[in-house]
Write a structure and sequence with these properties.
By secondary structure, this protein is an alpha/beta fold. The protein has one domain: Vaccinia Virus protein VP39 (Rossmann fold, 3-Layer(aba) Sandwich). Helices cover 31% and strands 27% of the residues. The protein has helices at 3-10, 23-29, 46-53, 65-78, 111-123, 140-143, 157-166, and strands at residues 36-40, 57-62, 82-86, 99-105, 125-136, 169-179, 188-197. A seven-stranded mixed β-sheet has the order 3-2-1-4-5-7-6, sandwiched between helices. The longest helix is centred in the middle third of the chain and has 14 residues, at 65-78. The radius of gyration is 16 Å and the shape is globular. It starts with a helix and ends in a 9-residue tail after the last strand. The mean pLDDT is 92.
Length: 206
């Protein structure tokens, strides 16, 4: 979908993704000590706001003006501070090695753009920091429920693991996971990869 399409979708009444954080994001990050977090393609801010409520210093980036406007309103309602920016995650400046958590949740891109995203996101992870990606998996198209109908924008665990390993991250978890969908005859199949940047000898993680 193009920017104008997301703006139109986020301008409709009600939240597109709901108020609660994604269940996988909550489970995988809930025990991490708070630090600096970067939420790429943050949408209406459900994950970014949840992290901020738990003491994280969060930056959220999304190219939809409507999504960021909603996220800012929700953050104000919740009484938390989140640095929310309207920008393209493929080109926005990212400080190298600056974030204790880099999150990518359900950002579906074609292959070349996926590679660019992974390269930029991996570079932003601080020593000792965590990278987490959750997205619709390629198998979901034929065997799961919902999600994009084009295989060109669906992820696989192998491509993410290979890309992150090549960029110096250590894989902690990489697998297809099932996500319950209310009223659906079968669960959705998602890609989940969590990785960490090792702390170099003689240095201290922030």
């Amino acid at each position: 979908m193009k920017r104008k399409d997301w703006d139109a979708r986020y301008s409709q009444d009600g939240l597109v993704w709901g108020r609660r954080p994604n269940s996988f994001v909550a489970a995988e990050t809930g025990t991490l000590p708070p630090g600096r977090a970067l939420d790429l393609a943050c949408g209406e801010g459900r994950n970014a706001i949840w992290l901020a409520e738990r003491g994280w210093e969060v930056t959220g980036v999304d190219f939809s003006d409507a999504a960021i406007a909603t996220a800012r309103h929700r953050a104000q309602e919740r009484g938390v501070s989140v640095d929310l920016r309207v920008d393209d995650v493929l080109t926005t400046p990212l400080e190298p090695g600056a974030y204790d958590l880099v999150l990518v949740a359900y950002l579906q891109l074609p292959e070349g753009e996926r590679s660019t995203l992974l390269e930029r996101a991996a570079a932003a992870v601080a020593p000792g920091g965590t990278f987490l990606l959750v997205a619709h998996d390629l198998r979901n198209l034929a065997e799961g429920h919902g999600g994009p109908t084009s295989p060109a924008v669906l992820w696989t665990v192998a491509e993410i693991v290979d890309a992150l390993t090549a960029r110096g991250l250590v894989i902690e978890r990489g697998e297809e996971v099932l996500r319950h969908v209310d009223g659906a005859p079968r669960p959705a199949i998602d890609t989940l990869v969590r990785a960490r940047r090792a702390v170099e000898a003689g240095s201290t993680a922030g």
